[in-house]
Each structure stands twice: as C-alpha cells, then as structure tokens.
Design goal:
With 439 residues, this protein is α/β, with parallel strands linked by helices. The chain has a domain at 169-437: Rossmann fold (3-Layer(aba) Sandwich). It is 13% helix and 23% strand. It contains 6 helices and 20 strands. The longest helix has 16 residues, at 268-283.
C-alpha cells in the first residue's frame, strides 16, 4: 500500500466573487484504500463567512501568469456516430499568481484571482459548430439522458412518517452533534430539519460528507455545500463526522480537525452511513426514493463509495443520486455495478486529486475515470467529457442512460475547490440543486 500525507486548507464563503488563495507545501502523498486505518488522501479544511477564499497546501511550485481571452464560435462535433452539442459562455479570463518559497521548508504562497472566463473548445472529429451562450452544456447523442424518471420515482415513505420525531428539537438546527453507535464505535452527525417540518410530508434527504481535515460542524457552517438555502424547506440534511487515524473525530471547532476523513477502514464509515440513514428514517418522514449524498475531495470519495455500496434498489441500498467535487477513490476500491444518478465537477488544474490520466502536478486519482465507471453502471453511451483548460466551465451530459439515471460531468479550469466560478458567484450550488431536485 502506498503511503502519503497531503495537507491543504480551504476557507469557503458565500461569494459575490471567487478569490482563490493557494498556500503550497511539498511533502509525501498517501493514497489509501478501505483497509487503511490512517487518514490518507488529500487534506482540506473549510469554514464559511461570506465570498470564497480557498487555500491549498500540496506538493507544488509557484507560477505566475495572466491570460485574457474571448471567444465566440459555433461547433457541432460528430465522432464515431455520436453527435455532441456544446454550449458555453464567452468571456475574459484574467489570472495572476505570485509565489515565494525556500528550498529548506518547501513552502510557497500563491494568489490566483480569476474573472469571467472564455469558452473552452471541444475536441473531436467531424464537422463542428460551437455557440457561446450564458450556460455551458455538452450532450452526447444516441438516446435520451434526461433524469427525473425511473429509479423509483414514486414517493417512498419512511417509518418516521405520521408520527412525532423521537429526536428532540433541541438536538438539531443548532450545529450540535448527535451521538450514534456504528461498528462498535461512538460516532456523531449534525442534523438540520426544515423549521416548518410536517410529519405527514415525505422530505428529500441529503448526506453531506466533509473533506479531509474538515468536520461535521464545517458542513453545518457552510449550509451543507450551500444546498440548504436552495432547498426551500423541502429537505432534511445531515453531516456525518469522519475518523482520524482509526479513531472517531471529536473536535468541536468550526475550522475542522486535523486528519479527519473517510478512510473507511473495515467498512466503518459505510456502517456510520447505514446507522445515520436508519436513525433519520425511523424518526423523520423521509422520501426513501430521494436520498442523496454529496462531498468534496475526501468527502467526494466517501460519496462515491456509498453510492457504489448502497445504491437504491439493492438490498440495504438507499442512494438515488450523488454529487462529488474534485473526487477520487480513497475510501475503498468498489466498482459500481448498479445505477446511481451521477454528477461530478473537477478542475483541470487540480494539484491534489488528478482530473484525468493525462494530468500532471497532482498527487493521486482520476476524476474522469470515476465518471466513466458510473456512466457504465448507468447504461450511458460514454464519451470523454469536454475538457476545459481555460475559460468558462463546460458540462457534459451523457445520453443513452437508463431512464432516470443521468450522468453529468462539469469541467472547469480551476484548482482543488468545491466552489468553482466563472468569475462571479459559484455556478455549482444551483447546478447541483437542480440535479438533485429533478428526481
């Protein structure tokens, strides 16, 4: 087993503009599997106040550049009989970086500010037509890939419907952890329930996994990757808490906890997910056909592992869809065989978890490969997603997927972040909420 230790620090705000500050420190990397009892994987830490600032510590060298670009063009691509339609947003990118470092401490600081960006081009054979618009989407033809149907679209009602919750109201909506036993260990999670909760109504349920060096309190502080404000009292949210070096994390700071992550040693973190889902379903009215997971970095890894091991429709399964940001496979080696609606975003400049097998300057992983794995499980007609190296983000939605099991991948030119931006507020929060709420 390869051993590594990566540390990065991300401070997340609700942005009017994305400002990314990167602090780089070079040291060894650990890629961990489900048998690891250490933290392994990338290290990230987030707290929320208001704009978006992210700092990242990783093996790297500083660079300085500035780019301006604008593009308006039309492209329609056809490759091996699969047509591709691509739309993006034309604009201007400006970036500036400064770095300082010393050889002894391998320490560097960098600042990168990105404005509105230009359209990235898609590469394929055949005639092309590309149109700049206010959004970015690439759709592979060959069938219908829309979600919202299939996968148990009828409402499922949990045991907690039509009765008073067994969890008292002073235990949720306040950022205080709730204790729970899982795999023989005392673990915890934080719970948020709509203020106007009605036990006769079945609610969506979202599990938000924190990043390495994060914790459940951070997830509560940043509104569960900013999805809670978009949910319009339709959803119950939980943030489970990870482990560090094989022991449950216990820190109470909003700034996270060192090495706290999701190595899933012996399946203990899947056991926590099982316990949390069972407890919430027993105590609250949950639509059992609309349970979702989301996470960034190590949290994305745990979302992937949970979807692979607990897909809705399988015995003991419950996940209908997931959304992962800058993900990798660090919480086990499961290969998906059952469909789960899949959303992913990844930066082509990610210096922690690799975007694809052509990436350099990153440490471990292959975000595009994870997308391909679930594309296959979902029965989609696979096509490599449009890769953006500069300019605005572009999303590829595969077609031919099993009814109600879409697969969507959004490429952006940024680094390791859960808050990608084209120069203004992050486009991702609403995009993810729209993806979940189609079901």
């Amino acid at each position: 087993m390869m051993t590594s230790l990566v540390s990065s620090r991300l401070r997340t705000h609700r942005p009017l503009r994305l400002i990314v500050g990167l602090a780089f420190t070079a040291f060894a990397v650990l890629a961990c599997s489900s048998s690891d009892d250490g933290s392994g994987g990338p290290s990230d830490s987030a707290s929320t106040t208001g704009g978006t600032t992210s700092g990242l510590t990783a093996a790297s060298t500083g660079s300085s550049n500035s780019t301006t670009a604008g593009m308006t063009a039309n492209t329609t691509a056809s490759s091996s009989g699969n047509a591709v339609t691509t739309t993006g947003t034309a604009g201007i990118q400006s970036a500036s970086s400064s770095s300082t470092g010393d050889a002894g401490g391998a320490t560097a600081t960098a600042t990168d500010t990105t404005g509105s960006n230009s359209v990235g081009g898609a590469s394929s054979t055949g005639a092309t037509t590309e149109t700049a618009t206010s959004s970015s989407t690439a759709t592979a033809a060959g069938g219908t890939g829309a979600g919202g149907s299939g996968g148990g679209d009828t409402e499922g009602r949990s045991a907690g419907c039509d009765k008073a919750p067994g969890i008292s109201s002073d235990q949720y909506n306040n950022g205080q952890p709730i204790s729970i036993m899982a795999a023989g260990k005392q673990r915890r999670y934080i719970l948020s329930v709509p203020e106007n909760y009605d036990n006769t109504r079945a609610y969506r349920f979202v599990i938000a996994y924190h990043q390495l060096n994060g914790n459940d309190r951070q997830m509560y502080a940043n509104d569960y990757y900013h999805l809670l404000p978009l949910s319009d009292d339709s959803t119950i949210f939980v943030a489970p808490n990870g482990q560090a070096n094989g022991s449950p994390c216990t820190g109470m700071g909003d700034g996270g906890e060192s090495n706290c992550g999701w190595s899933n040693s012996g399946g203990e973190d899947i056991a926590l997910a099982d316990a949390v889902v069972a407890e919430i379903k027993e105590n609250f009215c949950i639509d059992t056909n609309r349970i979702f997971a989301t996470g960034w970095s190590f949290g994305g890894s745990m979302s992937y592992q949970t979807a692979c091991e607990r897909p809705l429709g399988q015995e003991n399964g419950f996940l209908r869809a997931i959304a992962i940001y800058s993900g990798s496979q660090l919480s086990g080696n499961c290969t998906p065989s059952q469909p789960v609606a899949y959303y992913a975003s990844h930066g082509t400049s990610d210096s922690v978890l690799c975007y694809d097998n052509m990436s350099s300057g990153c440490q471990v992983g292959n975000g595009v490969q994870l997308f391909q794995n679930f594309a296959q499980a979902n029965g989609c007609t696979y096509q490599t997603p449009t890769k953006v190296t500069n300019g605005n983000h572009m999303c590829t939605e595969l077609s031919g997927c099993a009814d109600g099991y879409p697969a969507k991948f959004c490429s952006h030119s940024g680094d390791h972040t859960p808050d990608p931006s084209d120069g203004g507020p992050s486009w991702q929060y609403q995009d993810v909420w729209d993806f979940f709420s189609q079901f």
